[in-house]
């Protein structure tokens, strides 16, 4: 059986709706998937219908940081109606929205002709907004060839149009996930360049071993999970963005046996 436990929809910065993504998962013959949108559980608010034929684990990807590096934490099997989680998502949604408007204003000041309307429309649809939304606008306007180039030139941390924002501590994020009945898993450790050792000092329940950015380091992260008695997870981090691997569902998958313990113990 094939699974993908890290996927994004239009409820955060993905290209496809939950309906489209689950149908694509079925077509790709995935048995289990997790919609893990950034700082939101809007995919599970009852307004979306998932395609039959695939098990969907309720999940979220929460944003934190350590010494200036982004640290993302996946929460699996969460109660998406948990009051604390709902409050967190509402607060973060507002912060993301205000930050996105600031980024648009910075882009305009730099001479890029984009406006706030697309950002406001996304918010009205119930989703959260972030840098990828703005990057796609800039690509659509012809200023850049792809989203990656926008990030490389404008939206990287400290870049000309970058706007910082406050995030909760790693321990607070882990506690929030556990309070909602979930399992807290460190996402894509291979992306951490300077702070991996510091981050690993925190009390996670698992680690995302299998991820496109971890390739070549699977054995290292598997041993880490084994030594700490942590759950093993894995997923494609699929967004559907042109130029960002993987561009199609099913290109990067995980064997269910590799994440068997997590699948057995997670709710949903």
Automatic annotation (TrEMBL):
GO molecular function annotation: 5'-3' DNA exonuclease activity; 5'-3' RNA exonuclease activity
InterPro entries referenced in this protein's UniProt entry, alphabetically: PHP_dom (IPR004013), PHP_domain (IPR052018), Pol/His_phosphatase_N (IPR003141), Pol/histidinol_Pase-like (IPR016195)
Record domain Polymerase/histidinol phosphatase N-terminal: where: 3-66
Source taxon at top rank: Bacteria
SUPFAM superfamilies xrefs: PHP domain-like (SSF89550)
Cited PANTHER family: EXONUCLEASE (PTHR42924), POLYMERASE_HISTIDINOL PHOSPHATASE N-TERMINAL DOMAIN-CONTAINING PROTEIN (PTHR42924:SF3)
Record protein name field: PHP domain protein
